[in-house]
Amino acid sequence: MTYSHSDRDLIRKSLSQFSFFRNFEQKMLYFKEGASKFVQKRKCIYRLFPGLLSSDIAVLQGIAKNGKKVALISLGCGNADRDFELLEASELSNIDYYGIDSSAGMIKFGEEVFKKSKLSSHFLCQDFSSSDMKEWQEDCLSQYDRRIYAFFGNTFGNVPQSHMADLLRNMLKPGDVLWIDMAQREDTTPEGDGQLFEKYLQRLEPGQQRDFLLYPLQFIGIKEKDIELQIEMKKESSVGALLFNYCVAFQKKIELEVDGELLTFLPEDVIDILQIRIYDEKKFIRFFEEHSFTYLPSGDTSSIELKDERYFIVSRRPVIKMGKN
Asked: Do residues 310 and 176 touch, judged by C-beta distance below 8 A?
């Protein structure tokens, strides 16, 4: 079941935001052909980290025990290949799946993946940070004994951290579970940070990764020859993250009409495209505890009765080594 299947309004809203803030929202990477570009370049994480599937199954089975009716809500579900594989492998029959993404293209990919399943699946083309989400939750999720809100694919690392943590705190009810897939900094020394920078610097080289980053520029009519694609690295101490910010610097004066408005960009003007965060585990956990979430070690899900708190679980995965995609 699909609740909405047009991203026209989301595109218009994002273009309006771009006109005002002069920065791209991450969702613009996935509009129209951007969804296909993303799917072409990615691999399901279970192919890259084989041990992660069995770990995720144990977490899901622990939360969904005792025959309770459970909703798994995947925020930024993408093409939902990981979600599908996890649910199929878990062999749980008491879970309904909800895939939420702001890209209609991604929703279509997700629907296609779940056609192979007998599981109850529903898809919503919506920005999960919008005010409409609260009404949708009341309409569609109130009947469940347990709700799991999942950020898979390190999606949480692409969004403003404190804003999203506060939004999730207000979105989740006591007894709900927030399940976050975290890309982990194994080496937090300056040398380790430098190696990570070299890894993400490789995405600027010609190929699928660069084409994906350039897509939103082409979407609004900015030509590659008029800009320089750049990356910058900085630390976000409160969440224990190393932030990699992809941006473009203009090389000449450009005038564009965007959503009915004329915009002027001057040489050396910079606009952001995409942010990626890699985390220090302990600081990441402390960050959510400070936002009134209770940390639930993944190995404890089978023995705890979830009642009066907003819980969160972290799936840790090391960053893929340099030279690999």
From this structure: yes
The Cα 196–Cα 173 span in angstroms is: 37
97's CB contacts (< 8 A; 6+ apart) are 71, 72, 74, 83, 87, 114, 119, 120, 121, 122
Residues 35 and 96 in one domain: yes
Is the same domain home to 247 and 176? no
The residues, ordered by sequence, that sit 6+ positions from 242 with a Cβ below 8 Å of its Cβ are: 185, 193, 196, 233, 234, 235, 236, 277, 278, 279
Tell me which H or E stretch contains 136.
Answer: helix 132-140
Digit-coded pLDDT (tens) for 171-230:
898 889 999 988 888 888 899 899 999 999 999 999 888 888 887 777 778 889 999 999
Residue 325 domain-assigned (yes or no): no
Q: Which secondary structure element, helix H or strand E, spans residue 180, and what is its range?
A: strand 177-184
What is the tens place of the pLDDT at every residue in 108-123? 889 999 998 888 999 9
Count CB neighbours of 232 within 10 A. Answer: 12
CB 124 within 8 A of CB 4: yes
CA 2 to CA 111: how far, in whole Å? 8
CB count in 10 Å sphere of residue 245: 17
User: Would 2 be classed as within a structural domain?
Assistant: no
Residue-range definition of the domain harbouring residue 250: 190-278
Query: pTM score, two decimals?
Result: 0.84
Q: In this structure, are strands 270-279 and 241-250 parallel, antiparallel, or unpaired?
A: antiparallel
Number of domains in the chain: 2
